[in-house]
Amino acid sequence: MSAHCQLTGAQPGFGNNISHSHRRTSRRFDPNIQRKRYWLPSEGRNIRLTLSAKAIKMIDRIGIEAAVARIRAGGVKV
Fold first, then answer.
1. pLDDT tens by residue, 12-31
2. Which member of 41, 43, 46, 55 lies 3.0 to 4.6 Å from 7 by CB, making a disulfide possible if both were Cys?
3. What is the pLDDT of residues 15-73, one digit of tens each?
């Protein structure tokens, strides 16, 4: 599963770990990605989305229908 949110587009950021001696090594900042299943009443079926925690809260606020419309507007097949 790629660390990419279908609704917000959140994806990993990259940076460095810096040790006490100031040596730098690469690291990756992953978003909090969850696979969540929602009932889509307009189509009478369940859909499974890959979402960040922030996107799950957004769906609670705007509703699943509006969220799916935004995802589809971005060119992602649901």
1. 999 999 999 999 999 999 99
2. 55
3. 999 999 999 999 999 999 999 999 999 999 999 999 999 999 999 999 999 999 999 99
Interatomic CA distance for residues 24 and 58, integer angstroms? 36
For helices 53-62 and 64-73, what crossing angle results, to 10°? 120
Identify any residues that bridge with 73 across adjacent strands, giving them in sequence order.
none
- b/e string for 30-59 if b means 16 or more Cβ within 10 A? ebebeeeebeeeeeeeeeebbbbeebbebb
